[in-house]
Amino acid sequence: CPRCMQCDTKFDFITRKHHCRRCGKCFCDKCCSKKVPLPRMCFVDPVRQCAECALISQKETEFYDKQLKVLMNGATFFVTLGTSDKSELMVCRLSNNQRYLVLDGDNHYEIEIIQISTVQILTEGFTPGGGNSRAIGMILQYKVPGSEELTQMKFTASEDFSCNKKLSASWLAAMHKATKLLYESRDQ
């Protein structure tokens, strides 16, 4: 690699090359100077990363420290399958191995995370002046193994108790961050 893959600076005796520990590309010191923890790749101490990878690593660290616990603890939702008019009260959580979305109620569903194609968070309370919106539900589309058709599930926050509503909103916010992170890492 004779030149920096970011700024095209030529490497020589003074301008040394450095490898981003996440993407493996070759950069000059200016373009690869951030040292960020990278536990998912088993680095104990913070390691050199390019600016793009450092940002993703920081988001991942925040996700693992905060949102993952919320997703694994779960929340209660009214779940509607497909175009049905009937909804079922279910506890939705991320499995311990983080590979499945588990829904428990009268029925039991396990949706493999890799089969989820789209997640749309439903909100209310948005004002034209830029006020905050609040997550009240989500629509999830996924492929059932052995089928090419998409199945849809709608999750609506339970209105029973205000603490349930807050827990559901926190879970939905964590799910939203998780899907953004998932799509960013898929693009890399």
Automatic annotation (TrEMBL):
The keyword Metal-binding applies. Residues 1-53 form the FYVE-type domain. It comes from the Eukaryota. It comes from Calypte anna. SMART domains: FYVE (SM00064). It holds the Pfam family FYVE. The lineage of its organism: Eukaryota, Metazoa, Chordata, Craniata, Vertebrata. This is Zinc finger FYVE domain-containing protein 21. PROSITE patterns: ZF_FYVE. One of its GO terms (molecular function) is zinc ion binding. Signal peptide: none annotated. The keyword Flavoprotein does not apply. InterPro entries: FYVE-type_Zinc_Finger, ZFYVE21_C, ZFYVE21_C_sf, Znf_FYVE, Znf_FYVE-rel, Znf_FYVE_PHD, Znf_RING/FYVE/PHD. Keywords: Metal-binding, Zinc, Zinc-finger.
